[in-house]
Design a protein that fits this description.
Layout (H helix, E strand, L loop, with lengths): L12 E4 L4 H4 L5 E3 L14 E2 L1 E2 L8 H11 L7 E3 L17 H17 L3 E3 L11 H6 L10 E7 L2 H15 L3 E10 L5 E2 L3 H17 L3 E7 L19 H11 L3
Parallel strand pairs: 1-2, 1-10, 2-3, 4-5, 5-6, 7-8, 8-10
Antiparallel strand pairs: 8-9
Helix pairs in contact: 6-7
Organism: Trichoderma gamsii
GO biological process, one term: fungal-type cell wall polysaccharide metabolic process
Protein name: Asl1-like glycosyl hydrolase catalytic domain-containing protein
Length: 254
């Protein structure tokens, strides 16, 4: 089967964050850390994926990331749009309105696409219940996105599949799952805590992503707010049981 150009190096598996890259990198192809120019010695040999996180007005990191994006002196292979513009929380979600998003997209992101970068859509906080991206998609974008970036925070594969189906059916573009984690999102965004459940969930979701023709890339997130069992590394820097479960799952494919 021919490799899709929107799957970095022909491998779907990736990581959001670098804490476990040293353990996973032989089985990954790409990673991101929510910044314009991801850099980590742990990520050597992997494709770093650039992101314009937000509009610069929602926390110190947001401001730094906007400035860094504006000063990029080369065109990344892949550029992702805003991180959860449809939710609030300084340095957690970008919290920008659609008009601001369109302006930033047309002035900073679309030109990267015109220079050859593959563009990823803004990724929604509200998953399949979103309305922001629908409105954004109806505006005058000087260049649309090439793949739809999505976040999946669900506790079972039925919910995962529903998110995938929504984004494919709505936008008809290849999908990158740029963050995923086991979360009871309909219960005040409560992270899963049962290790056995998480281990099985990771195995199941990787199988689902690998088998789904619409998902071209996916990334285990080591982000904050996901409880004490999900993080892929322990406090001493060793691989956690959850991190090992991901390693086991992706090792079957790459």
């Amino acid at each position: 089967m021919a490799q899709h150009p929107l799957t970095p190096n022909g491998r779907k598996a990736g990581s959001a964050g670098d804490t476990a890259l040293a353990f996973w990198k032989d089985h990954l192809s790409w990673w991101h850390d929510w910044t314009p120019a991801p850099s980590s010695p742990k990520g050597a040999g992997l494709v770093p994926v650039s992101m314009l996180w937000g509009g610069g007005n929602n926390g110190q990191k947001d401001a730094q990331r906007l400035q860094q994006f504006e000063h990029l002196n080369s065109t990344p292979a892949y550029v992702m749009g805003f991180n959860e513009p449809d939710c609030s929380g300084a340095d957690v979600s970008a919290d920008i309105d659609v008009n601001t998003g369109v302006s930033l997209w047309n002035s900073l992101i679309a030109p990267m696409g015109q220079k050859g970068a593959a563009l990823g859509s803004p990724a929604m906080c509200r998953q399949k219940d979103e309305s922001w991206l629908k409105q954004f998609n109806q505006q005058q974008l000087t260049k649309s996105w090439d793949f739809t970036s999505i976040h999946i925070f669900k506790s079972d594969m039925t919910g995962v599949q529903a998110d995938i189906d929504y984004y494919w059916n709505t936008y008809q573009k290849p999908l990158w799952v740029t963050e995923f984690a086991c979360v009871f999102d309909q219960n005040n965004f409560t992270p899963c805590t049962d290790q056995n459940q998480i281990n099985q969930w990771i195995s199941d979701i990787v199988d689902l992503f690998e088998a789904n023709e619409h998902v071209l890339a996916y990334a285990y997130t080591d982000g904050l707010g996901l409880g004490s069992v999900w993080p892929p590394v322990n406090s001493d820097g060793s691989l956690s049981q959850s991190g090992q479960a991901y390693l086991n799952a992706i090792s079957k494919y790459h």
